[in-house]
Design a protein that fits this description.
Length: about 150
C-alpha cells in the first residue's frame, strides 16, 4: 500500500508545517483572548475595511453560521461594530473599532515574529522558490478536491 514512508509524503509534510504554524499562532493569540478565526477577521477588516459576514466567512474558510458566532463574540468584546449595509438593510457590515485595531496591532507584533524567523531561514532565492512551490501545491490541492454533488432524491 505505502509507496514511500509517511515522512516522505508531501501531504504529510504540508500538514506538519500547517500544524506547527497553527500551534504557534494559537499560543500567541490565546494571550490576547483571540482565536485564529477572530484574528483573521480583525486582520481582514483592518486591511479591507467593512465586510459582510458572508464575505468574511468565505475569506476565512468557515460557514456563515460559524462566522455569525465569531462576529457576535468580537462585537461583545467591543472589537468590531456592525451596521446595516446601505445597499441591503438586512445585511450587517462589520468594521473594526479603535479597540479592535489596538488589540490587532499588539497581537500582530507577536505573530509577525514567526514570519520574520521563517524569512530569515531562507535565502532570497529559496524564499521566492518556496512561495512558488507552495502556490503550485495549493493549486493542485484545490484542483484535486472533489466538488460536492447534490444528493438525488
Amino acid at each position: 500500500m505505502a509507496e514511500s514512508p509517511a515522512q516522505d509524503l508531501l501531504c504529510s509534510r504540508i500538514r506538519r508545517a500547517e500544524q506547527a504554524l497553527m500551534a504557534h499562532h494559537e499560543a500567541v493569540l490565546r494571550g490576547y483572548g483571540l482565536t485564529m478565526t477572530q484574528y483573521s477577521v480583525l486582520l481582514l477588516l483592518s486591511s479591507e475595511g467593512g465586510n459582510s459576514g458572508a464575505q468574511l466567512a468565505r475569506a476565512c474558510g468557515v460557514t456563515q453560521q460559524t462566522m455569525a458566532s465569531v462576529l457576535t463574540g468580537l462585537q461583545k468584546k467591543g472589537l468590531i461594530d456592525r451596521t446595516p449595509s446601505p445597499m441591503h438593510a438586512k445585511v450587517l457590515i462589520a468594521a473594526l473599532t479603535d479597540e479592535g485595531q489596538r488589540l490587532l496591532t499588539l497581537a500582530y507584533r507577536e505573530v509577525v515574529v514567526l514570519e520574520r524567523a521563517l524569512s530569515d531561514a531562507f535565502t532570497d532565492a529559496e524564499h521566492a522558490a518556496l512561495i512558488d512551490l507552495l502556490e503550485r501545491a495549493t493549486a493542485v490541492l484545490v484542483q484535486q478536491t472533489p466538488q460536492a454533488q447534490p444528493v438525488s432524491p
